[in-house]
Amino acid sequence: MSKEINFNNLAEGAVGERLNIEMQKLAANVLDPNTNWKNVRKLTLTIAIKPNEKREIGSVDIDVKTALAPAKGVSTTIIFGMDNEGKAQAAELVSGVKDQMMIDNDGDVADDRGNKVNHVEQKESNVVNFK
User: Fold this and answer.
1) DSSP label of 108
2) In the chain, what is the greatest distance between 2 CA atoms, to the nearest angstrom?
3) What angle do CA 30, 31, 36 make, to 5 degrees?
């Protein structure tokens, strides 16, 4: 009888395979920019052995788990208002300031919600043209 157990061969190689799969998940979590780099990640191998009364054989349960860093939360700003029928509405504020026009990523004029604007209303001005 061999005195050493090789985890790569245990349970027909399933233990080594599970360890590699969970280690891959852990590595991907470490590299994910949406997680906090400071969080500790853990890979846990649990081996539970229940021997028989004669202590000659035992049934073995093996579990491999990872404790990963959760994804960081995200935040945004929502603007609220009423539509023409008096129903409450909410939309994401994209421009940074309520009612402010902006230039979107395509270089087009957009409203504060990021919707493209075809024309900009010009208000009548009382300013006199000085020379």
Assistant:
1) -
2) 109
3) 55
Neighbours of 64 (CB within 10 A): 19
| Token code pair at residue 108 | 């087009």
pLDDT, mean of each 10-residue run, the chain (131 residues)? 82 93 96 96 96 95 95 88 89 77 80 77 69 67
Quick check: pTM over 0.70? no
Checking 18-26 for CB contacts under 8 A at 24+ apart, the result is 18/62, 18/64, 19/43, 19/45, 19/64, 21/64, 22/64, 22/65, 22/66, 25/66, 25/68, 26/66, 26/68
Strands 102-103 and 88-92: unpaired
Q: What is the pLDDT of residue 94?
A: 78
